[in-house]
Design a protein that fits this description.
This protein is α/β, with parallel strands linked by helices. The protein folds into three domains: 75 residues, no CATH class; 108 residues, no CATH class; 40 residues, no CATH class. It is built from five helices and eight strands; from the N terminus they run βαβααβαβαββββ. Strand 6 and strand 7 form a beta hairpin. Helix 1 crosses helix 2 and helix 4 runs parallel beside helix 5. The N and C termini lie far apart (73 Å).
Length: 242
């Protein structure tokens, strides 16, 4: 289809000529029907929407199209599948990857429910990033609420407004802090123990530096074992002999 064939135009009465007068309930229903019509037009291949920008239906339709476009853009950016696909594509370059300056808002001095939502989103993002083979590190931005650079301390100015810290202004742990602590120092930290078989002990764990303690015939040996591959996450296994 050419550009003309994929173009939709809006035209309608101004507010003073509305058949429903000032009835906001009816206007809301008209808006919902317009939204359905726009979505159907998109599904049929229409990509260009033109409004005369006059007060009334023209402006209402334009607003609906802009809102729907923003929703679709946000949906694509926030879709975990899209996010993972982008990281996997970049990973094919074979280079180390870092996520820089992460801020997940909970909004400064807002209700506790926002902090719980922040924790959920933060945990899911970190799980996704941790699953990417070439991921080397994640840099969280503004660790403590109310101390953002360039803003007056303890106010909602500047980046303080977003309340994206893992600690609140009084340095208390927020739910997001506890969520990451559970992942980093719990779920993603390998601990293993048991009796060896034929003078060896095997375990499967994350890359990193391990503190090893071996007890044999009344003697205890302690040493560090380094399992690493450019800082990337993966499952590994090794055999230790003393």
């Amino acid at each position: 289809m050419d550009e003309i064939g994929t173009t939709c135009c809006f035209s309608g009465p101004r507010p003073k000529n509305y058949p429903w007068g000032n009835n906001k309930e009816r206007e809301s229903k008209i808006a919902e029907k317009l939204k359905i019509a726009v979505r159907e037009a998109i599904e049929r291949g229409y990509r260009h929407f033109i409004s005369g920008m006059a007060a009334g239906i023209d402006m209402l339709a334009a607003k609906i199209v802009l809102q729907m476009r923003e929703e679709e853009i946000l949906k694509s950016y926030l879709d975990p599948a899209v996010h993972f696909d982008v990281l996997e594509t970049l990973g094919k370059l074979g280079l180390p990857m870092q996520i820089s300056e992460v801020t997940v808002p909970s909004y400064f001095r807002s209700e506790e429910a926002n902090a719980e939502i922040q924790a959920f989103i933060t945990e899911e993002l970190y799980r996704l990033w941790f699953s990417v083979e070439n991921m080397e590190g994640v840099d969280y931005w503004n660790l403590v609420d109310g101390y953002a650079t360039g803003a007056k301390r303890g106010t909602c100015g500047g980046e303080n407004y977003y309340g994206g810290g893992l600690l609140d202004f009084d340095m208390n742990e927020k739910p997001a802090y506890r969520a990451l602590d559970r992942l980093i120092n719990g779920e993603w930290k390998t601990t293993a123990g048991g009796n060896g078989v034929k003078d060896s002990f095997r375990f499967r764990g994350f890359f990193g530096t391990y503190e090893i303690e071996v007890r044999r015939q009344g003697r205890t040996e302690k040493f560090n074992l380094d399992l690493s591959d450019s800082g990337r996450y993966a499952a590994g296994k090794t055999a230790v002999r003393v």
